[in-house]
Amino acid sequence: MDFFNLLSLCCGLAFFLFGMQTMSHNLERLAGGRLEGLLKKMTANPVVSAVLGAVITIAMQSSSACTVMLVGLVNSGIMHFSQTLNVIFGANIGTTLTAWILSLSGIESDNFFLQMLKPINFSPILAVIGVFMTMLAKKERNKSIGNILVGFAVLMIGMNFMSDAVSPLAELPQFGAWMVQFTNPAVGVLVGALFTALIQSSAASVGILQALAMTGSVTWGMAIPIIMGQNIGTCITALLSCIGANTGAKRVAVMHTLINLLGTVILLPAYLVLNAVFRFPITNAPIDAFGIALCHTLFNLLATLLLMPNGKLIIKLTEWLTREKSTDKPARTDNICVLDDRLLRSPSVAVQESANYAMEMCATTRDTLKKAMGLLIHYDEAMAQEVLDQENMVDLYEDRLGTFLVKLSARALSRMDSHAVSLMLHTIGDFERISDHAVNLKEVAREIYEKGLSFSGEARRELDVLTGAIEEILRLTERAYVDQDLVLAAQVEPLEQVVDQLIAKIKDHHIGRLQRGECTIELGFVLSDLLNNYERISDHCSNIAVALIEVKHNSFDTHKYLNDVKYGSADFAAAFESFSRKYVL
Question: Considering the entire predicted model, what is its pTM?
Fold first, then answer.
């Protein structure tokens, strides 16, 4: 093996890792928020959780990526670390799929159809299809599928490069002498763990082992300990990711490592004892790529079958190994989201979790405003304090969610996820401003209460009509945002115009009452503050609805949109007329 063979090996490894990353990234984009949805379906049934863990890992093409995502979710307070146990079992099984795909390279036959099952033979076809889909497809989904096909082809080219590069090793006596070292199981486990930790991919490490196996120099007895070590080495990614995380997140990484360590500690001695007693004939026989895939799967299946029934003991052992510090604080001590930056490695999950928190922010804003409006009818000091506390919560939502969304927007996102991030960035500021106006309404209510002020009967009746319109525009905006309903969103702007007309009329009527001596200047100031805040609230509701519509249409020319709907839309005119009849002074 010369220098150029070494270059080919490095090139093959680079292609392999690049192809796997491309597949993983585009599979995740294709899955969208469904990955996050699957995690939310975690149940008390360990089998269901394990299956979901396997599905997620297959979608992400990496058990390490799945575990890192779990670390982020636990650190954010979205999941408890104990919920991740069976997901990890499933992830260990799901990651073996890659080895089975790579094992098809070992097919030997003169039959054309069997030959076409070899990935190196059919991957060029997939590459051509993938390139054409990437270049010509208009839909984001089809482009992602094209990238997945190209990624798979590159991965298989990398595998072929590695196989060709190591094939001369079979003729080197020095290589055979070096491989004898791996007859020692401890050495096999150590080398498998260290090499996998170095490249941070058990799938790539297994792929390289399969390439070496094609030289005929790797026996079953050598491969089994190496595969067990590879399962331990893959835990390094999660262990590195939990640095700086809370105790719960650290426990996820420790639990993943513990599962793979215990599996090796139990199964390796069992294999050695059984081999010493029964003298398995295959121990010294050369192993092929299929055999490596089989060993990889059997190890993870047996480890899962042995350890899953003892899940509570594993959780207790994990808690004992990573004891909670007195200084540790839960991720949501103030009931506000702390979206972990580790989630940025899985953008679709990060987008969905951000959307969940944005909806929480929307609900908190609505509740804050309703309480503030209630204070105008009956002032209560405890309720007033709740308004202040909730407004502070909304401020924190905007700060933390906004910071996370800016980081997330820099990631490669699907068109759907990109639209979701744009919508949140456009609307969370309006939610925060509405909560500010809720505090202003609380101050107006306090002034009315402390000064013993009272509006005339006519003014109260007019304010009741306006309050009803404000409550409806708030309700419409929330429903449209939560349900992503463009039909409801289109009704917000006509109602906002009706609110503006109501406010203008109330101001005119107030001037008339002043001239007739039926109202005081002091009450006029209070009424002006009240009306100004109501007007700004309806404006922010309009902003949210318009952002929802514009983002869906991938257009951000708000002024053009408003002009078009106000002066050229029959639907707008009909909705405006309907709301005008409903809210009459």
Answer: 0.73
